[in-house]
């Protein structure tokens, strides 16, 4: 039984509904004649059809089935016609659609007519405000209306748009954080492996892109949400989404938005660098041109540029390029201060690292770069490379020419101080540690790890660095059979903060789940006692510990299978430097 209220709009259009039939049957003396009359008046008004209907009766086809099939066919034709009118070039095409909307809107609650009304609404670039309010006020109508209609509602209802966007933003952050805690530890397949274009195919980015369409006002609202959330949480993944959203609109050639976003060309150029994981000289000049081209009175654009440079994928590219640049300088016996490319990379890193402060203070001015990072910190870091190189050369000398040189265990005071006090220096220092790990340089890594206990804003204990470090440590898996190396990794670094930082605890367990069979047995037993989760810890931490426990028990029953070392062919251009283990030739 169909509820009569569904046909409530028919009388407004002069069409009889169930109530009229009920009244007719109640007041008539001959019901059969009344029904015939009702059918004649409200059936399909086609004279030649009346004589054909009895043939359907003879074939046992109910009138309802016939009328329904005709109705369905007409509805499809009408919806196609609406689309054709909207896509046409007639000047009065939208007037026709508005007239059709006026006639059909009273029936919007009828399930059979609703698709037609929604089709008309969808193709109107400006739906009458009264109709928009009616759709917005009715939850069922709002839910089924097309995104084209919702955009018109959202642009004047920021709170409602925020309610729609908020779950997507939460989902995005959850996905990014889940990727950082992935059980798959690898130097080749890590957080930064997916290309920019692949990342833009993610569900959240595609949905947001569709919700925004070509609407500049909605785009600005989303950017404002992202700025607000970044300020509130300091979560850099919001910066990634800001860049991905702009480039997703670029991919779709939405010029209405790209042409008015002052960051578009800068992001486009930076996106190409992220794809290559390197800033080459030509793109460096382009990026510098954008930064130098910020005119007086337009400084506010620096806030958005800094947010785009704060994106971890951008930061990763800039620091990898910095380390590679330092390798080249070392091979040329040149100083950091003599490299314009290096100075630009540091300038962009500084701008990105200062994004939160700039947006929070609303003082849109490039942060002044500490020149001592160039004149003191980087030379100190390069001296560590020279120490390593000297020791390696010494080891290769014939025994009669060797001196009593031992591998240095201390670090230059300038290096340690700057990674504690300067965020750009700290970021470069952390990536240098990853570079050393990738070279499987155990001595240099043991020398560096203990100094990471005290870094600027505890950056060494951030999820991004620990995700990368654990992946890089898989290259040194055989070294975990040595107590000295285990002590350097765990006692001197990771275990110094695991009790106060659950994320560090989780990364320790991720690492051990991957290479527990390589760790010295006696040391592993101690680690299991140390890393047992407290009662108040999260379920994810407890699950990781339980999984490790099960793996250890299983490995006691069956011997481990030998592992193949992963290939290190990353498809990057080699850098010509002295080919010794201490001056690595494999670029990051």
Notable characteristics:
disordered N terminus; 31 helices; elongated; disordered C terminus; mainly alpha; Negative elongation factor B-like; single chain; 588 residues
Which helices and strands appear, and what pairs or packs with what?
Blueprint: H1 18-27, H2 31-42, H3 47-50, H4 53-58, H5 63-87, H6 93-104, H7 114-123, H8 129-137, H9 139-144, H10 147-154, H11 158-180, H12 196-199, H13 203-212, H14 216-233, H15 237-251, H16 255-258, H17 264-276, H18 281-292, H19 301-310, H20 312-331, H21 340-353, H22 355-361, H23 371-396, H24 413-421, H25 423-438, H26 442-449, H27 463-473, H28 483-491, H29 502-515, H30 521-530, H31 539-557
In short, what is this structure?
This is Negative elongation factor B-like. This protein is mostly helical and 588 residues long.
In words, what does this structure look like?
One of its GO terms (cellular component) is NELF complex. InterPro entries: COBRA1. This is Negative elongation factor B-like. With 588 residues, the chain is mainly alpha-helical. The protein contains 31 helices and no strands. It is elongated. The termini are far apart.
